[in-house]
Amino acid sequence: MTDTLPIVEMRDISIEFPGVKALDGVDFRLFPGEIHALMGENGAGKSTLIKALTGVYRIDGGSIVVAGQERQFTGTRDAQSAGVSTVYQEINLVTNLTIGENVMLGHEVRGAFGINWRATHAAATRALAGLGLDYLDTHMPLSTLSIAMQQLVAISRAMAIKAKVLILDEPTSSLDAAEVDGLFRVMRSLRDQGVAILFVSHFLDQIYAISDRLTILRNGRWEGEYPTRELDRHSLISKMIGKDLRALSSLGGSRRVDQRDYESDAPLFAAKGLARRGSIEPTDLDIHRGEVLGFAGLLGSGRTELARLLYGADRADEGETTLHGKRVDIKNPADGLEKRIAFSTENRRDEGIIADLTVRENMILAMQAERGWAKPIPRKEQDELVAKYITALNVRPSDPNRLIKNLSGGNQQKVLLGRWLATNPELLILDEPTRGIDVGAKAEIQEAVVELAENGVSVVFISSELEEVVRLSERIVVLKDHQKIGEIVNGPEITAQHVVDVIAAHGVEAAAESDIIDAEDEHDPDTSTPTRTPQASTRAYAATEEES
Amino acid sequence: MSTAARTTWLRELIRKPYFWGVVAILALLLLNVLKDPNYLALTVNPTNGNLVGNVVDILRASAPILMIAVGMSLVIATGGIDLSVGSVMAVSGAVAMVFMKDAGQSGSLGVALGAIGLALLVSAILGVVNGVLVAYVGLQPFISTLIMMLAGRGIAKVITEGQNTSASNESFRWIANGFMFGLPVVFLIAIVIVIIVGLVVRRSALGLMIEAIGINPKASRMAGIKPSGLLMTVYILSAVLAGVAGIMSVGTVMTVDVSRTGYQMELDAILAVVIGGASLAGGKFSIGGAVVGALLIATLDKTIVFLGISSSATPAFKAIVIVVLCLLQSDRVRGWFVQRRRPPIVRPEPLPAEPKKQEVPA
């Protein structure tokens, strides 16, 4: 493969942002017909490099050669016309347009009387067929598709313009295992057609499953380029974080063994028959002081929906909740906050950060909301508080006056965690706090969870990665099809497989009554077929998994 | 090094959202000075010590615009808009005039205060209606306040029974026409109110929360911010400030003409906010920017009159000035400007084909 000329060759790329060198002399090569993984922690410069290649950022030094020609793209459109197409992590499609319009947006087939819609849809179908998606009705709104299918549509869109280089920035972060397999099939077939694919993912398993070569960045610098099969996981992670892996895995917190006497210990928070129509069936729940309670289940199992009820993000239709043994009615997030419950959302961009505010403003926001606008937190107190959490959670860059939108995902997540910790919660609900973030930040967040619990904070921990849930939780609530199907008291013998078994076993019993319509699946023709296998959430994460 | 420092300093200054507003005010004043070198001259009236001059007139005229622009900047920051301010001005003016006319006793301070209090109360009620429609009923701000914009003029007509209503009350008149410390009272009142609002908004967390809900309402709710209360506050404040503007505006002539008072003033307010550099999409706001915008509009209005531009060409002239200003403020237009002056990219010598990559350690 390497005897051909690279389609993309970036040399000695430097990009400087005010006060930071985002990229410092980075080299990158991409050959036709390869899948090349770009590796690095959050903030290592992966996204910056991609944006340099696609013309979103102007480079301050170095050269970019695409197909033998030195280029300096001035925007994504420019890059597209040179055959470089990008599918971003947050899908950039228009959900209320049709599938066909989305595929062809900006490249509609034009006839004598403006757009020829028939030809446009035909072209869209052809582009979709390239990915085996020709069964989709291009006249349906995009919003009728699942996130995974939308991702594939986004790729079709990229391919519709005959891309020679396809950039996939964390395309798998919201897909389940079957969907990832589907995506990988598409990627392999594109590779075999000679397309050069640049792939970014935080899932090491996926990197090893799909990529041919990888380039590692750390702190904006080039760390090396290797054929994937010649670099083992330990070395890869060590190169990404610049530390030995063993030091890191001890950080991630040890397995929590449950020693609580549940009979005598009165719960901090209890729910009885808590339900909301269309999102979660009546559920009983106890949460004890200083306990880490895991919610395990597949995407769409109701784990997020249940958590939202606890905080008041959604209002329960029925059921009652008690806190410290007293009845409480939590109608909205402000109520939840007042009762010293905090909820960190899985939807960081839409429900978490306030993009145009600074790190400091984002961090103090919940605390300020709780006090009310008339009682501002004195600036000195703000600064101390923010400095404390920036240090404790290792937020990088550590400038509190930077706009949060300019931070990497993992660091945004840490700022949000700081926001909730600042409210001094008794019950902290973390919905996918480690999704889409790198090994180092992940370990730091896991460590923070353990430490919080040791200090008496109750934590509800929700994650798609069962290993993570099993390692951190004392008890695990298992959810499926919008109901709680079991509770596992954690112990040394419990593994992720136990949880999978509980989910799978329930599937067999419940097969007869599986015609429960669930809100998410209505939009998702794919999930009505039994493609969501239990392995979906056993995606292992290499950093925290012991190598055999 | 020092040149680099200077250019960044200059760039910072130019990046101030209302920088071009200040430049435009100065340019308009310059234009007037070119026509009449004595335009900026200020004289002191020997009998009462008051300042007299064109600039004083501009300040006086800017007072009502300042009021509604500041209110509007807060409403826009929440991601909303208040189209009803012009009509609220008319209602407020109508209430005050009818009250004073019915009360008789010209010159009584009590009557003047009663008129002001009642006018502001009625304005606040209209603000409550706007706020309820937006915050609780969930109508779009554009629609809610459009309803109020139409209804407001109707209410004003009902109050005045469709007649232009005049009253005489020296205390009330003093607000719009009086002088204090040599400056127009109306401008001093406006500045004091602007400063109070600015302090309240920025010294409390109100400003932060308004920006938060303007930027991302969902995330703000999840952070425990209750948007309804904030929206109510903002729409009531906007209406009360419009009420103040109405009092200022009818006080000048002591007559309310319900079809003219505050007519199309909502557009001036929105323009002032935009000139101040705020985005109509909500989010960041700047009271200082709104003040600059309001002063610019007052200056522009006075300049048009001073230059003797025919009344039929007035809207076009105003539009041109504002379009130019918006273009200068646009990042994209500035981007073109900067790009064109960027030195060409220096192409390095082609490097040997074999890259320097190291091989994998086993």
Automatic annotation (TrEMBL), chain A:
<dbReference type="GO" id="GO:0016887">
    <property type="term" value="F:ATP hydrolysis activity"/>
</dbReference>
<dbReference type="InterPro" id="IPR003439">
    <property type="entry name" value="ABC_transporter-like_ATP-bd"/>
</dbReference>
<dbReference type="InterPro" id="IPR003593">
    <property type="entry name" value="AAA+_ATPase"/>
</dbReference>
<keyword id="KW-0547">Nucleotide-binding</keyword>
<feature type="compositionally biased region" description="Polar residues">
    <location>
        <begin position="527"/>
        <end position="538"/>
    </location>
</feature>
<keyword id="KW-0813">Transport</keyword>
<feature type="domain" description="ABC transporter">
    <location>
        <begin position="8"/>
        <end position="244"/>
    </location>
</feature>
<dbReference type="InterPro" id="IPR017871">
    <property type="entry name" value="ABC_transporter-like_CS"/>
</dbReference>
<protein>
    <submittedName>
        <fullName>Sugar ABC transporter ATP-binding protein</fullName>
    </submittedName>
</protein>
<keyword id="KW-0677">Repeat</keyword>
<feature type="region of interest" description="Disordered">
    <location>
        <begin position="515"/>
        <end position="548"/>
    </location>
</feature>
<dbReference type="InterPro" id="IPR027417">
    <property type="entry name" value="P-loop_NTPase"/>
</dbReference>
<dbReference type="InterPro" id="IPR050107">
    <property type="entry name" value="ABC_carbohydrate_import_ATPase"/>
</dbReference>
<feature type="domain" description="ABC transporter">
    <location>
        <begin position="257"/>
        <end position="506"/>
    </location>
</feature>
<dbReference type="GO" id="GO:0005524">
    <property type="term" value="F:ATP binding"/>
</dbReference>
<feature type="compositionally biased region" description="Acidic residues">
    <location>
        <begin position="515"/>
        <end position="524"/>
    </location>
</feature>
<keyword id="KW-0067">ATP-binding</keyword>
<dbReference type="Pfam" id="PF00005">
    <property type="entry name" value="ABC_tran"/>
</dbReference>
UniProtKB/TrEMBL annotation, chain B:
<protein>
    <submittedName>
        <fullName>ABC transporter permease</fullName>
    </submittedName>
</protein>
<feature type="transmembrane region" description="Helical">
    <location>
        <begin position="142"/>
        <end position="160"/>
    </location>
</feature>
<feature type="transmembrane region" description="Helical">
    <location>
        <begin position="270"/>
        <end position="298"/>
    </location>
</feature>
<dbReference type="GO" id="GO:0005886">
    <property type="term" value="C:plasma membrane"/>
</dbReference>
<dbReference type="Pfam" id="PF02653">
    <property type="entry name" value="BPD_transp_2"/>
</dbReference>
<keyword id="KW-0812">Transmembrane</keyword>
<feature type="transmembrane region" description="Helical">
    <location>
        <begin position="234"/>
        <end position="258"/>
    </location>
</feature>
<keyword id="KW-0472">Membrane</keyword>
<dbReference type="GO" id="GO:0022857">
    <property type="term" value="F:transmembrane transporter activity"/>
</dbReference>
<dbReference type="InterPro" id="IPR001851">
    <property type="entry name" value="ABC_transp_permease"/>
</dbReference>
<feature type="transmembrane region" description="Helical">
    <location>
        <begin position="304"/>
        <end position="328"/>
    </location>
</feature>
<feature type="transmembrane region" description="Helical">
    <location>
        <begin position="55"/>
        <end position="77"/>
    </location>
</feature>
<feature type="transmembrane region" description="Helical">
    <location>
        <begin position="17"/>
        <end position="34"/>
    </location>
</feature>
<keyword id="KW-1133">Transmembrane helix</keyword>
<feature type="transmembrane region" description="Helical">
    <location>
        <begin position="181"/>
        <end position="201"/>
    </location>
</feature>
<feature type="transmembrane region" description="Helical">
    <location>
        <begin position="112"/>
        <end position="136"/>
    </location>
</feature>
<keyword id="KW-1003">Cell membrane</keyword>
